[in-house]
Amino acid sequence: MLLTLQWSNYFLIRHFLGEFQLGLFHSGYQYLIILIGIPTALVSVLLPRLVRMYDEQGEKSLTQFLSSQAPRLVLLWAFLILIPLALLPWFFGLLLGPEFDAAVSILMVLLIAVPGAMAQHVYGMAYFLRGQLLLSTFLFFLVKLIVDFSLAWNFLPSIGLAASAWSVVISYLVLQWCFLLFASTGGHSRKRGIVVLCWCHVCGVVLFLADALFVRLLVALALMVVSVLYVRQSGFLDAEALRRVMPVSLKRFENFLLRLLCGGETWRKVKS
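The structure assignment produced for this chain is given below.
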């Protein structure tokens, strides 16, 4: 399916714009595919544990995962990927040289979809457990293909290569929302995920609007600070659970991390 999605864009770019423009798009698109695929490593670790919990507790375990752990993982991915996303266009431009600035611009557009990429993977596990793989691997990707192809077909001839990049981004955002919205039926378990995914998209768009390297780094740091403030003020993280899963190498920073991420009152309750 991913190959079909990739070649649909390639076919349209080659048809309307030619080989050189296709090469510019290809160079940035490969980085997008790599970054969006990275969260599959986490899924390979979590899925066996979630399968065991689902066999033991049924839908209750999945509902708890979707309402608490899944949004946390999505936000954590967005938090950790911001600095790499800020640096990547500069590094990419350094590799290609100034004659390929157009490819850097395409890459900056494509990176908008990366902060929310974790949603597709963690919420996708719900469809696996429920035996709904036809819905997640066929229907959702079919919707993505239709959105991507329709936008590129209509706007690529008039707008140029940027239209294809935006069609890819919009189709990926639609895909992420499909995975989230249809994973849980209850509004309560869906609310926090919606807030987090909206924030991921805001991060992607705001980072895209920053052009120079120094500005991108400042924007990424500012977004990270806002993310921490949201986590701290909303009680998004459970201090006791965070302390239990904290690696031994970070135990020396336990008090600092709990106070930073969970707030002073919560930290004092756990400590007592």
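Interim note for the steering committee: The chain has a mean pLDDT of 85. DSSP finds 13 helices and no strands in the chain.
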